[in-house]
Specification:
The strands form two sheets. The protein has a four-stranded parallel sheet with strand order 3-4-5-6, with helices on both faces. It has a two-stranded parallel sheet with strand order 1-2. 40% of the residues are buried. By secondary structure, the chain is an alpha/beta fold. It is built from eight helices and six strands; from the N terminus they run αβαβαβαβααβααβ.
Length: 238
């Protein structure tokens, strides 16, 4: 199951996993047209995909995992990809709602999604949980995304704790720390600021969604079978 699968990194993951024969549950919030289009692209690879709609700020994330398990009869891999900065403003102007919603989407929801998947995996020979973090956890975000950086840091802490708890059940838990990836997420910075940000990256280019998707595929594959509790940076050296 991939949350936030209708665009950007999530869609890239869906297509790459489909190319390798995965059966997919694709979560989306409001991008129904994009999600429908993604399913058609997935099916071109001969893979099966089903859509699961939910507003993760308003609805029970645990119910989403239950719906997936009921539909497919189990869950092997959960990818907590959905995330956003809610209230992109200077920290001196940040309000309670922006803080709470950003933490909920980026830290609380992934935890309870993982909790539900963990409970199933514990009884069914294990599985893998992959959390999508951000280099904002390393740097604390910018002055306008400090709360996002804090939430992603919490997600990374959850990853390490869940990995320790899951080791004896063959539940492997890792996080991918994405750097500056070329998605609509960063377009709010504006062209000038984007170029300045890219120049801070040692490889001097933005990452692509498939760079993150490739790491997710590796962790989900046999190649990731002895990796747990790791925060893996896909950052171009940032």
């Amino acid at each position: 199951m991939i949350t936030g699968a209708s665009g950007g990194i999530g869609a890239s993951m869906a297509l790459l996993f489909a190319e390798h024969g995965a059966v997919l549950g694709l979560h989306y919030n409001s991008g129904k047209e994009a999600a429908d289009s993604l399913v058609m692209e997935v099916e071109k690879y001969g893979s099966q995909a089903s859509l699961f709609q939910a507003d993760l700020l308003r609805e029970s994330s645990e119910t989403l995992v239950d719906a997936f398990i009921d539909h497919f009869g189990g869950i092997d891999i959960l990818i907590n990809n959905a995330g956003a900065v809610l209230g992109f403003k200077d920290f001196l102007e940040l309000d309670d709602k922006s803080w709470e919603e950003t933490f909920k989407l980026n830290a609380q929801v992934p935890f309870f999604m993982a909790q539900r998947a963990f409970a199933y995996m514990k009884k069914n020979d294990g599985g893998k949980i992959i959390n999508v973090s951000s280099v904002a956890a390393k740097y604390g975000g910018s002055e306008r995304s400090l709360h996002y950086g804090a939430a992603k840091a919490a997600l990374e802490a959850e990853t390490i704790g869940l990995a320790r708890a899951g080791a004896k059940y063959n539940i492997l838990v890792n996080a991918i720390r994405g750097g500056f990836i070329d998605t609509p997420f960063h377009q709010k910075l504006g062209p000038k600021n984007i170029e300045e940000r890219v120049q801070l990256i040692p490889l001097k280019r933005a990452g692509q969604p498939k760079d993150v998707a490739n790491m997710a595929l590796f962790l989900a594959s046999e190649g990731g079978n002895f990796i747990t509790g790791e925060i893996l940076g896909i950052t171009g050296g940032d």
